């Protein structure tokens, strides 16, 4: 598996092993958006596996320190980014907040839960990046609250060009522990998919909205 680093390989192997990621190029899933997809990802399953959960926490913390230096707060994206963010914040000894998908309809009608201090250097934690829209809504909410959001980290990204463009427009650097391209390499080597499926899987990533399985 040339060009794969140790973290990408271990994360990919772990996600496939515990079925947090399933690949079905011949029997695709249907996303809420209506897209047909050969992949289904639910990184919440990692929370039920202590060794994998610990490895992800450690590597996300390390990634944040390497890429962003001094950080003053961690914020998770509801819902799947919340537990991952809490683990990272605990690991780094930092305050934690999370951003709702929409403002609460009662009480103080909070969009951000937790104490926000204007000017804080914040890194957002997400479990998965597809188009990046929901992640960037959280980034925008934190910025509007006065935070200095320096970037975002996630466990996995599909690597869509749309996401790259969206994060670039938002001037928000983002880094993931593993990506779709690396996952497919690991999946082939470990027998989760056939070599003959690779072209079909690559076609989906390049144009997911128009993809049709054969």
TrEMBL record:
GO terms for biological process: 'de novo' UMP biosynthetic process; pyrimidine nucleobase biosynthetic process. GO terms for molecular function: magnesium ion binding; orotate phosphoribosyltransferase activity. Pathway: Pyrimidine metabolism; UMP biosynthesis via de novo pathway; UMP from orotate: step 1/2. Its EC number is 2.4.2.10. Orotate binds at residue 130. Coiled coil: none annotated. Residues 48-158 form the Phosphoribosyltransferase domain. Its cofactor is Mg(2+). InterPro entries: OPRT, Or_phspho_trans_dom, PRTase-like, PRTase_dom. It catalyses: orotidine 5'-phosphate + diphosphate = orotate + 5-phospho-alpha-D-ribose 1-diphosphate. Keywords: Glycosyltransferase, Magnesium, Pyrimidine biosynthesis, Transferase. 5-phospho-alpha-D-ribose 1-diphosphate binds at residues 100, 104, 106, 126-134. Belongs to the purine/pyrimidine phosphoribosyltransferase family. PyrE subfamily. Catalyzes the transfer of a ribosyl phosphate group from 5-phosphoribose 1-diphosphate to orotate, leading to the formation of orotidine monophosphate (OMP). Homodimer. HAMAP family: PyrE. NCBIfam families: pyrE. PANTHER family: OROTATE PHOSPHORIBOSYLTRANSFERASE, URIDINE 5'-MONOPHOSPHATE SYNTHASE. This is Orotate phosphoribosyltransferase. The gene is pyrE.
């Amino acid at each position: 598996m040339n060009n794969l680093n140790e973290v990408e390989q271990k994360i990919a192997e772990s996600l496939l092993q515990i079925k947090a990621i399933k690949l079905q190029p011949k029997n695709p899933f249907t996303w809420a958006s209506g897209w047909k997809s050969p992949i289904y990802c639910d990184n919440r399953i990692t929370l039920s596996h202590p060794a994998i959960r610990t490895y992800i926490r450690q590597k996300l913390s390390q990634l944040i320190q390497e890429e962003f230096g001094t950080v003053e707060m961690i914020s998770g994206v509801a819902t799947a980014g919340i537990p991952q963010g809490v683990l990272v914040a605990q690991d780094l000894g930092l305050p934690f907040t999370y951003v709702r998908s929409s403002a609460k309809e009662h009480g103080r009608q909070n969009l951000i839960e937790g104490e926000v201090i204007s000017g804080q250097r914040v890194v957002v934690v997400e479990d998965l990046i597809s188009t990046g829209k929901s992640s960037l809504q959280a980034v925008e909410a934190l910025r509007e609250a006065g935070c200095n959001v320096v970037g975002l980290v996630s466990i996995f990204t599909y690597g869509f060009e749309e996401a790259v463009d969206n994060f670039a427009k938002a001037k928000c650097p983002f880094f993931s522990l593993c990506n779709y391209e690396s996952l497919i390499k690991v999946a082939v080597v470990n027998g989760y998919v056939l070599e003959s499926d690779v072209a079909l899987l690559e076609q989906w990533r390049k144009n997911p909205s128009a993809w049709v399985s054969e």
